[in-house]
Amino acid sequence: MSRRAAMHVSRLLIEQARNKAFSTAIFKDVGISNSASHVPGGATFHNHGIFRAASTVRVRHWSGVASDVAKDEKAAPDEDQGGRAVVSSYWGVAPPKISKADGSPWRWNCFRPWETYTADTTIDVKKHHEANTFMDKFAYMTVQALKYPTYLFFQRRHMCHAMLLETVAAVPGMVGGMLLHCKSLRRFEQSGGWIKALLEEAENERMHLMTFLELSKPTWFERALVFAVQGAFFNAYFVAYVLSPKLAHRIVGYLEEEAVNSYTEFLIDLEKGLVENQPAPAIAIDYWRLPPNSTLKDVVTVIRADEAHHRDLNHFASDIQCQGHELKEYPAPLGYH
């Protein structure tokens, strides 16, 4: 093959690669035969599978491109979705049509009606785990050391305090559930429902945050603070759970005790009129099945009940392991959320 012919073949291959990488066009006529082909300059070469491979690449490229019919389909408004457009997918995963008990359309994609619940507001919010052992005292003092800077920073700004608190409180359940999940896979054993319980806790804490975001918007400084605190706390709690799960659960138990105390102070200021008792956001009314005329006080009350439940769950998990047992030996307290 002459030098000129070789350069021409190289240009053709580069052109094919460019079409594959930067074009979504579908080429239906390859127009290259497997017989001898001529190039400028009179040189002749044989297509020993070069263009056959190029056409194969094209075919493979076609498999990742939507069909012409799918491209031409337009999203049609759906009356059940409040007039919003419904995305039409090639894979056929149609969004379910969900309605409330009164027949009105369900407006939340982050949770479904069967995931809502009525919080147990009769739960004892004054319970406290006495720190008798060295581990318990270490966990308690760790939480106290973390508490005071937070109180000094937020003071009586309960809404901002609650938002930051929930960004941190949603981390332990996710970390614990993730590590228990990996442990269950490694050991080929069930978890007694504790994976689900901890992930439910994390999701519930995140819903607390979504509720407060409807009532107050964080500033750029508070968002930056969340980045820093969450990054440090996630890694610290991950290491703590790997080294000692019972210590990690005890720390969370004391953290939840402080959360209960914080929301109790929130309620006191609401009753005194120091904080405006504004109407409850719609997401809170649907998530906790509250009456339509509920207020912020009702929302804080059910959130405090959730925190008290998380307190009991984590102290219970720590007690199981402190007595020499594994979590899987005792069924997790599911069914609250």
Automatic annotation (TrEMBL):
Its cofactor is Fe cation. It catalyses: 2 a ubiquinol + O2 = 2 a ubiquinone + 2 H2O. Pfam families: AOX. The keyword Transmembrane helix applies. It comes from the Eukaryota. Its EC number is 1.10.3.11. It is a multi-pass membrane protein. GO terms for cellular component: mitochondrial inner membrane; respiratory chain complex. One of its GO terms (molecular function) is ubiquinol:oxygen oxidoreductase activity. Binds 2 iron ions per subunit. Keywords: Electron transport, Iron, Membrane, Metal-binding, Mitochondrion, Mitochondrion inner membrane, Oxidoreductase, Respiratory chain, Transit peptide, Transmembrane, Transmembrane helix, Transport. Its main location: mitochondrion. One of its GO terms (biological process) is alternative respiration. It is found in: Mitochondrion inner membrane. Homodimer; disulfide-linked. Belongs to the alternative oxidase family. This is Ubiquinol oxidase. It comes from Perilla frutescens var. hirtella (Perilla citriodora). The lineage of its organism: Eukaryota, Viridiplantae, Streptophyta, Embryophyta, Tracheophyta.
